[in-house]
Structure formats: structure tokens, C-alpha cells
Amino acid sequence: MSDQSKGRRSLWRAAVVLIIAACCYEAAARSGYFAPALMPKLSAVAQTFVVMLLDGTMIEHSVSTLYRVLFGFFLAVLVGLPIGILMARFRPVESFFLPLVSALMPIPSFALVPLFMLWFGIGNLTTILIVFYAATFPMMFNTWSGVRSVNPLWLRAAGAMGADENALFWKVIIPGASPFIITGLRQAFLRAWIAVVGAEMIAASDWGLGWVIFDAKEFLNTDVMLAALVVIGGIGFVFEKLVFGSLEKRTVQRWGMSRVAKG
Amino acid sequence: MVPIAINNVTLEYDTPAGKVTGVKDVSFDIGASEFVCIVGPSGCGKSTLLNVIAGFLAPAAGDIRIAGKVVTGHGMDRGVVFQDFAQLFPWRTALGNVSFGLEMKGVAKEERDKIAREQLRLVKLEKFVDAFPHHLSGGMQQRVAIARALAYNPSVLLMDEPFAALDAMTRDDMQTLLADVWRETRKTVIYVTHNVAEAVYLADRVIVMSAHPGTVQADIRIDLPRPRDPLSVEFLDRQKQLMRHLGHKVSGNGAAH
Question: Given 3.40.720.10, 3.90.79.10, 3.20.20.120, 3.40.50.300, which CATH number is that of B1-72+182-257?
């Protein structure tokens, strides 16, 4: 089977699953057991979604959230990637950062939001820092593992062909570690995306997909909540599949450095 | 193309039980454009000796001179081919792999593509220039590795059991191909193997090593005309002679009596 038809099939399968889930929800909403205010019909959610899209508020919320998540994510890559590399190359750097990573990585970023609020106030700074916190450690950890997993034979062969330190780094270590680096980017973004919505709920004001959900609770606007959830899921999906998925396809999968699950 | 002198090389390595001598007081000379095979049982230090010549390891005593210059590290006067197929860079195409050394030398893109294509033609892979290593068979990957080691035109080619992980039929083809490549390029080749037939097929001279510690046991010239016929009586005689030096019991009366 060609890659393209395989891709179409998996897309088709995903669509079927989503439609079944939507039908189940709609059946529950129409059953009459729940108040429509708590469980609106999908048509009502869709209507709210379209209204919010047309008046620009949904775009504005999404842009605010994307700004925070991307800012924090890039900051995390900027810090996590070089430190991860240095950890793998230099023992003292490793023994300094590794306990830090082990201690800080398991703390849910959400648990830090109140503290960060007291330190940095309400708004972009706190949410960006929460995102940064959530994304840095997976980036660092995966990069560290990746550089350590570079085949020593590649380094030997490159050295025999006259590669200096600079060439070894850019032309052997970085591409050699790329399967792990891409996994790191992926995990970092996923954690960043989860963190930003949580942080916005309490530490943002006026704009953001997390904030709009929390705010809608005050007015029992469940349709707004669900519309925002759909957008959160949609954007997350786009990044996971289209951005990181295609990055993986064009690099490590093309090079045979990561195998796709068969079936 | 250049002579190599190996002078009283001794190599030690650390083990939990203390220092162990891997190679002891090994000396021999290699002439320009000579094809030398080093054979011996596992543990005789033949691969270690090759790594010293490649400059990956430093000897505890003695030195190695290539064209009169003492070896202190790896250098572009030597090309190295390893046994493991994984030596190729998976993120580069066959062409990209072969041009790596030229890239390090600072050769312009157009020129290095031209040279790399030429090298791939030499190992009969001109149709696979744009293939990534994971799409190539083991034998093809080793051919890319040979082309890669030759591309930046080193005068010495060092090969560490490059065909040991291949099936017997592919190995025969690869030996023929290597003999052709050698005839065309006239490199000085040092080739480590534990396969006696392979050594007789390829070598001008065979250095037989014995183990614990690794020392040179015999230095045998193979003066059969090329291309060699592995089924000829003379060929089998040489094989028996080598086997005897390696301590195997051999029936019949070969050339060595």
C-alpha cells in the first residue's frame, strides 16, 4: 500500500471514531436527563463557535494562547537543547543538571501557577513562564539521551575523514541525535499546550482559550466552554500531526532512523 | 602508494585485572601499493593493531611511520572501512556519505559531487547515488563505505573485516570487486580478516599473528598471478600453508611440506 492511501485510511478511521463519539454525546444531550444549559446540543455549540469565530473573539483567544505557548516553547527549546547537549558532552554539566531535571520534571506545572502568580502577577509573563517550565525539561532530557545515543562508529568514521570538532557537532552529533531531539520537541510542545490552558484559567485576564473556559463557568455558558475545547483539541492536533508529524516524516523516517508501527 | 613502517609496536589496555598486553613488539614493513592481509585467531590483536595504524589508539611503545612520518592521530592520508554496516551516516544519501571527506577538505560542491559519483561508479553503485543507507543491502552499504574511504584520495586504505558480516556469496562478489578497485587505484591496503581463503585471494602478503600476546608469527608472500582462481591447486596449497601457521591440522602435502 502506498503512503498516501495509508494516510487517507488512517484519516478516515479517525473521522469515524470522532463521529461516533459526537453521536454518543448528542444522544446524551437529547435524552432529556440533563439540563440543556449544562449539556447543550452540538448544534448549539456549533452556533456559538461560528458566532465567536465571526465576531473575532475566538481568533483573539486562540492568538493570545498561541502567542504564550509558542513564546514559552521557543524559550524552552533555546535553553533545553543546548543544555541537553552540554550535559551529554561534559560530565560536570551532567552531574549538575541531571538531579535538577529529575527533581523538577515530575512537578506538575499547574501546581506552580499560584506561586508564579504571586511572584510575577497576572498576565502573559506568568503563563509564558509556566509554559517554559513545562517544556524545558522534556526538551533537555531527550536531547541529553539523543546525544548519548549517537553511534561512536559515526564519530570515528567522521574523525578519520578529517572532521574537526565543529563539523563533528553539526554534521554528525546533531543529525545523529535527531530522532530524540524531535521526540523532545514533540513532548515539550504537548506539555506546553497542556500547561498553557491550565495557567490561563487562573493567571490570565481577558484573553486566552483557558481563560475563556474558566470565565464561561461564571455565566453557565457551557456552549462557549465546549466551543473553546474544540479549538484547543484542534490546534493541538494540528501541531502534533502536521507540524511534528511531517517534520518526522521528512527527517528520521526518511532516513530509516525511526520505524513506523506496522499494521 | 606510500610505504608504511611498523616499528616494535606494543599495545596495552586496562582491564579490571590490571594491564594486559594486547600486541607485543610487532614490526613489519609494507611497501607502496602493497595489499597486506593480517590474519590470526580472535584475541591476537589484529584489529587493535589496525586501530593503532588508523590513529584511533596510541601504542604503549614503538611507532608507526607512514611515508616516514610518525602517526599521532587520524589523518586524511588514511581511509578506514569498518565491519559494521552502521558506519554509514543514515541521514545522508550514498552520494552524501561518499562526499563527506571531500566536504571536510573544503572541496566545492560541484567538484565533490563529481568525485563522489565517480567513486560510486567504481564500486558499481552509480544507480544508487540518491539512496539512503537503509534502502541498501549490507553488501551495497559496505561498497558505499569503501567508496567513501577512497573518495578523498588517501594513500592508505585500512579495512577491518569489512565483509565478515556478509553472506558467503555476497562476500565472494565483494572480494572480486575489491581486487578490481585495488588494481585500478593502486592504494596501499592493510586488510584484517580471520578468513584464510579471503587473505589468499586478496593479498600480496599475509601477516600471520598469534594470540596472547599478539605477535607476528609468519610473513608469507602470495605470488599467485591475478585474478586468482580460488579452486586452483596453487590457491589451495597457499590456504593450507596459512592454516598450518595458524596451528590447524591439515591433511595432504601442500607447498610448505
Answer: 3.40.50.300
Residue A249 with chain B: CB contacts under 8 Å: none
Give the three cell numbers for residue B121: 561508479
Q: Are residues A46 and A15 part of one domain?
A: no
DSSP secondary structure code for residue B42 in this structure = T
Instruction: For residue A53, count CB atoms less than 10 angstroms from its CB and return exposed for 0-12, middle for 13-18, buried for 19 or more.
Output: middle
Other residues' Cβ atoms within 10 Å of the Cβ of residue B12? 16
B104 contacts A167? CB cut-off 8 A:
yes
Contact A254 B132 (CB under 8 A): yes
Q: How far is CA B101 from CA A20, A105, B79, in A?
A: 57, 41, 9
Best mutation target, A149, A151, A154, A161, to test chain B (most B CBs within 10 A): A161
> Quick check: B91 and A156 CB within 8 A?
no
- ipTM of this complex prediction, to 2 decimal places: 0.86
The CA distance from A109 to A111, in Å, is: 5
Nearest by CB to B86, which of A153, A158, A163? Answer: A153
Cβ contact A254:B132 at 8 Å: yes
Element (H, E) at B222: none
Which chain B residues have a beta carbon less than 8 Å from that of A251? 91
Nearest alpha-carbon partner for A198 in A79, A112, A139: A112
* Cβ contact B89–A175 (<8 Å): yes
Q: Which of A153, A162, A178 is nearest residue B104 as measured by Cβ atoms?
A: A162
Looking at residue A9, the DSSP 8-state letter turns out to be: H
Range of the domain at A19: 1-34
Residues A17 and A78 in one domain: no
Domain count, chain A: 2
Ordered per-residue pLDDT tens for chain B, 257 residues: 568 999 999 988 888 888 888 888 899 999 989 999 999 988 888 988 999 999 988 898 999 999 888 888 888 889 999 999 999 999 999 999 999 999 999 999 999 999 999 999 989 999 999 999 999 999 999 999 999 999 999 999 999 999 998 998 899 999 999 999 999 989 999 999 999 999 999 999 999 998 888 889 889 999 999 889 989 999 999 999 999 988 876 665 444 44
**Which residues make Cβ contacts (< 8 Å) with residue B175, sequence separation at least 6?**
B163, B198, B201, B202
Q: Cβ A157–B82 below 8 Å, yes or no? A: yes
Residues A2 and A106 in one domain: no
Contacts (Cβ under 8 Å, ≥6 apart) of B159: B80, B81, B146, B189, B190, B191, B192
